[in-house]
Specification:
The complex is a heterodimer of chains A (about 130) and B (about 140). Chain A has one helix and nine strands, in the order H-E-E-E-E-E-E-E-E-E. Chain A has a four-stranded mixed β-sheet, with no helix packed on it. A four-stranded antiparallel β-sheet of chain A has the order 2-3-9-8, with no helix packed on it. With about 140 residues, chain B is of the alpha+beta class. Chain B is built from two helices and eight strands, in the order H-H-E-E-E-E-E-E-E-E. In chain B, the strands form two sheets. A four-stranded antiparallel β-sheet of chain B has the order 1-2-8-7, with no helix packed on it. Chain B has a three-stranded antiparallel β-sheet with strand order 3-4-6, with no helix packed on it. The longest helix of chain B is centred in the first third of the chain and has 15 residues. Chain B is elongated. The chains are: A mainly beta (about 130), B alpha+beta (about 140). At the A-B interface, strand 2, strand 3 and strand 6 of A face strand 1, strand 2 and strand 5 of B.
């Protein structure tokens, strides 16, 4: 086996070992939007992918490749990996063009504005 | 000693509750106590902890001897009263975590950074704790 083949094998083994975790989420709903917050510690905001397809919202973030240089791992409670989770939304519930996302302190916050038709409408009662 | 403890438990229900709670803290609620990894190299350790959603000002790190204690509080007060909360999976509130290191720490050399929800604490080994090299003199 050549050196390149060895490297490739090692790389694919490393890829296979890389785990994908379900991030813990908090979800709440206001009158005009749904807010989803997902814990993704170590994830760079540039690696985050948010897709809405057929009313399925998927969030994905690539975790940090931890292994500080010069150190050896002495004790571990968490593993490096990525985060992915999908949510099914009610059909046509979200105004797709208005989706916003921010990342702060390792928490992804996705703001999903409700479609006009889904907003709670106040119905005025006319007095006759 | 055992009986004394037992007496206290019988007579002080609050103490009993506190004990049970301490016990559970030790067993560890996965969400309450942050997960930590410990990295070491010669004369230095690096403690990393996943603590997302915390304001760095609400993090408190204390080092004593060979023990590091991480304390903090995660606040989540976003939803207003009129909002509907669908799901809360994160632990919100105070947490505390103690980690024992294989050596004593040089207190004034400790550095901490909180980046993307991960706390990194670098912990240099105390001078007096470092192994001494002893020169062998020829007679």
């Amino acid at each position: 086996m050549t050196n390149t083949q060895v490297t490739e094998r090692l790389e694919s083994a490393a890829q296979a070992e890389r785990k994908t975790f379900l991030p813990a989420v908090n979800i709440y709903e206001t009158q005009d939007r749904i807010v989803l917050m997902a814990d993704m510690p170590g994830v760079d905001e540039k690696s985050v992918d948010i897709t809405l397809e057929n009313d399925v919202l998927t969030v994905h973030g690539r975790g940090a490749d931890q292994a500080p240089e010069g150190y050896a791992l002495a004790y571990a409670e968490y593993l490096p990996g990525d985060y992915r989770r999908s949510f099914t939304l009610a059909e046509g519930q979200i105004n797709r063009d208005g989706i916003e996302a921010v990342m702060k302190n390792g928490v992804l916050k996705v703001i999903l504005p409700k479609a006009e038709s889904q907003k709670t409408k106040r119905i005025a009662v006319r007095v006759e | 000693m055992f009986l004394t403890n037992l007496d206290q438990r019988l007579w002080d229900p609050m103490e009993a509750i506190r004990r049970i709670r301490d016990e559970m803290d030790r067993l560890g609620d996965d969400r309450a106590a942050p997960a930590v990894n410990l990295w070491t190299k010669e004369d230095e350790a690096l403690l990393t902890a996943e603590i997302p959603g915390v304001d760095p000002q609400d993090l408190d790190i204390a080092v004593e001897g060979n023990t590091v204690t991480l304390k903090g509080v995660r606040k989540w007060d976003e939803p207003k009263e009129e909002d509907t909360v669908h799901r809360v999976e994160t632990f919100n509130g105070e947490f505390s975590r103690t980690v024992d290191l294989p050596f004593r720490v040089k207190q004034d050399g400790v550095q901490a950074r909180y980046v993307r929800g991960v706390l990194n604490v670098s912990l240099p080994r105390a001078e007096e704790d470092r192994p001494k090299k002893i020169q062998v003199k020829s007679a």
